[in-house]
Amino acid sequence: MKTLSKLLVVAGLFAFVACGPSAKDQAEKAKQDSIKQADSLMAVKAKEDSTAKVVAEKAKADSAVAAAKADSIEKASKTTKKGKK
C-alpha cells in the first residue's frame, strides 16, 4: 500500500508539472506583456505632449493679453497727457 501511495504521489506531481504553461505559452505571454507596457508608455508620452501643448498655448494667450493690456495702458496714458496740456 505504501508503494502504491508513493507511486500515486509521484504521478500526481508529474501531472501537476505537466499541466503548467509551456515555454511557448510563457514566451507569448511575455511578448504580450511587453506590448502592453510599450502601449501604456506611449499613451503616457502622448498625454504629456498634449499637456505641454496646452500649457504652451495658454502661455501664448496670456502673453497676448498682457501685451494688449500694456498697449491700452500706454494709449490711455498718452491720451491723458495730451488732455492735460
Overview of this protein structure:
By secondary structure, the protein is mainly alpha-helical. The chain has one domain (2-84). 93% of the residues lie in helices and 0% in strands. The chain has two helices and no strands. The chain is rod-shaped and about 120 Å long. The N and C termini lie far apart (122 Å). The mean pLDDT is 86.
What is the residue-averaged pLDDT?
86
Radius of gyration, CA atoms, in whole angstroms? 36 Å
Distance between the termini: 122 Å
- Helix-and-strand structural type: mainly alpha
Number of helices: 2
H and E string:
HH
Report helical residue fraction: over 70%
Uncertain residue ranges: none
Number of strands: 0
Shape, please? rod-shaped
How is the biggest beta sheet arranged? none
User: DSSP strand (E) fraction?
Assistant: under 5%
| Count of discrete structural domains | 1
Brief write-up:
The protein has helices spanning about 1-20, 25-85. It has about 80 residues and is an all-alpha fold.
Salient structural properties:
mainly alpha, 2 helices, 85 residues, rod-shaped
